[in-house]
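Supplementary Note 3. Input sequence used for the single-chain structure prediction.
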Amino acid sequence: MSVADVKKSAQERMIKSLETLRADLAKVRTGRAHTGILDHVQVEYYGSPTALTQVANVTLIDARTIGVQPFEKKMAATIEKAIRDADLGLNPSSQGDMIRVPTPPLTEERRKEMVKLVKSEAEDAKIAVRNIRRDANEGMKKLVKDKAISEDDERRGTDEVQKLTDKFIVDIDKMVAEKEKEVLTV
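The predicted structure, written as discrete structure tokens, is reproduced below.
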């Protein structure tokens, strides 16, 4: 193992942390409807909990309405109940074999709660990135202890990992600023 291997491993893990944050932020509701809101909804399907996207087609009807088209007609009532029980503040209604899920506009108080949630997610991502940095630095120390690299190489490697960490922290801050702006826009 070399300094480059440690750095590459740290970078890959940091990228995964960033992708996880991006996925988590996509679930945070803004003023507009988006299908990601229903991604974690579980529906009882033949006795086992199943993701909503596995039993229905989820689409956007307009800016404020999500359409859910069950693959099996008899699943409509179950899907409707699952969406109601998911504690998303949504009230679906059936129209024939299509379920319409209107997303109510967010109140100012709810927007502020969403911003707090976004900041909490960002802080978790920053902690993950810093933990990866710590692991990489420990890996460098171990290489020095095993006499695989010199202390100068360790210092250079540690500096490179720190620059990488700083870059990812800035990326996280940018993502959070964009999401905050999106959430606060009326």
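The chain has five helices and six strands. The CA atoms of residues 23 and 163 lie 24 Å apart.
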